[in-house]
Amino acid sequence: MPREKSIPERFDAYVEKVGGRLYRPCRRFLREALFGLVEKRSVLLSQIGRALNEPSRLIHTEKRLSRNLGNERYNDAAVEQDYLQLVAPILRDERYPRPVIAVDLTDIAKPRARKMPNLYKVHDGSRDEIVNGYQVVSVEAVGVRGRRLPLLSRLFSQAAPGFKSQNATTIDAVTTVRPHVPKDAFWVFDSGFDGYIFFKRLDELGIRYAIRLKLSNDRFLHSPEGKMKVSELVELLPQPHAHRIKFRRREGLGWKKKELQLGFVRNVHLPAYTPGGRPAEKKQGETRYSLVVARGLGMKPLVILTTEDVQTKADAGRVVDIYLERWGIEEANRFTKQGFDLEDVRALTWTGLKRMVQLTHLAYGFLALLVHGPRKQVERVASSFKAFGPVPEYMFYRLLEGIGRLLRATMDGGP
Question: CA of 354: how far to CAs of 99, 177, 199, 359, 366, in Å?
Fold first, then answer.
């Protein structure tokens, strides 16, 4: 029986796999940055430098890290592709029988920043206000029993050189991830992605997906009842089917059950669009959708447009369950912000900012791979941190607290 690899051995193997194509000094920087992130739980180079505990002065360590953060020889695309190739086999085992691929946008608010590169106005979701900052597009796989596997994370700004649009940035992320996930994967998007161009590009990619629709959008749909606005169709559509969901509001409070009322309609089409980008009056689009409506989650109904052929109550309930699984990526975004203090990110260059976001994603990815490994080993690490109560189901916070000192030995051994 093969010996179980230690945490430091798994860390070294991870760095070699993800950074195998990097120039050797860049691979050393990758190793040091990932160690500093999990040891100090901070994206500040000064904190990463303190974690390294080098004999030289801290200012010298920080300057070296800053040079490497903006090093042109560091190949971000190669690291991204090698990471996807590393995690892709996991998406084909029994833990992901038909993986749900969740795509989400989150913000990095920098309300006090003035001179950071390519600042732009973004919506700070936590405070519900417009501030300076950046946006991040994230892609994550969700498997059975809430398993999560981060796939990609990219920083972008509308003020950055070469920026085209939010849709183009998101589609580029989907295109990058798509070859590494199973063909039967189901993609899920929130209401910010319900534009015509986005629907068109997803259809061109040939993927199966579900998108939440905004009721405030005056979009027209062609249904068996005729052409009408989304809000009108939702009001006319009966929701006679009961569907029970189970969810956790807060860690440690246990599971709660809620009953939703479901309704659905098949053979729904978007309007065809003219070359000028306007919806046609009578002509329908080629793609056939199903519309699922669920009431009971809030003041407004949940409205989902999906490429799945929803024929029964069970089919409609499955679509709602899949969409609710997408909310896990928002918990992941919250973890990277709180666990690594991502909103405190600082760098002298735009390349450095994007690279630090990628490094944070890789640190989270390493923790996710540990969770997908031997369960007893991970629980030992998580329980090594003294805390009230047992190890929670979402153990990433506890794992991050307990893992830094275990990696110290491999760092003390040299690069």
Answer: 27, 18, 27, 9, 19
Strands 100-109 and 186-189: parallel
Lowest mean pLDDT among 308-322, 365-379, 391-405: 391-405
Contact 10, 34 (CB under 8 A): no
Q: Which residues contact 14 (CB under 8 A, 6 or more apart)?
A: 34, 86, 366, 369
C-beta of residue 387 within 8 angstroms of C-beta of residue 398? yes
Closest CA to 303 of 264, 246, 267, 330: 264
Structure pTM?
A: 0.90
The structure tokens 């405190």 sit at: 344
Task: State the DSSP string of 276-292.
Answer: TSPEEEEEEPS--EEEE
Contacts of 10 (CB under 8 A, 6+ apart): 369, 370, 373
**Count of CB atoms situated within 10 Å of the CB of 36:** 26
148, 221, 256, 317, 374 from 300: Cα distances, Å: 28, 19, 20, 18, 42
List strand residue ranges (DSSP E) for 157-199, in order. Answer: 186-189
Q: Pick from 199, 179, 187, 174: which is nearest to 142 by CA? A: 187
Query: Could you report the per-residue pLDDT of 106-137, keeping only the tens digit for each?
Result: 999 888 888 899 999 888 777 778 888 999 99
Q: Which of the 8 DSSP states describes residue 214? A: P
CA-nearest of 158, 268, 168, 176 to 224 is 268
Handedness of CA 178, 181, 186, 187 (dihedral sign): negative
**C-alpha angle 138/246/266, rounded to 5°?**
75
Q: What is the pLDDT of residues 309-318, one digit of tens each?
A: 999 999 999 9
Orientation of helix 350-371 relative to helix 328-339, angle to 10°: 110
Q: Does the pLDDT of residue 352 top 90, yes or no?
A: yes
**Res 278 pLDDT > 50:** yes
Rounded Cα–Cα distance for residues 327 and 311 (Å): 25
